[in-house]
Fold this protein.
Amino acid sequence: MVKVDGEPIYIQGLRAWDTELEGRQVEVTGTLRLRGSTAGPGPGGMPMHGFDDETFALDGAEWAPTS
């Protein structure tokens, strides 16, 4: 994820940053989408993994470190 003005924006399909980018400032482009809640009851009423609130995500993202 990246933060813009303190707001987390998740990057679709990105499981982890390359170690050389962790903690660095990056420029990211892509299509910003608002996702609804992804949490809910699973089998047997057990909670499923997900987000309780709406979140922003970038589809088709590309990134590069800033100078």
Summary: The CA atoms of residues 29 and 47 lie 33 Å apart. Strands lie at 2-4, 7-11, 26-35, 55-65.
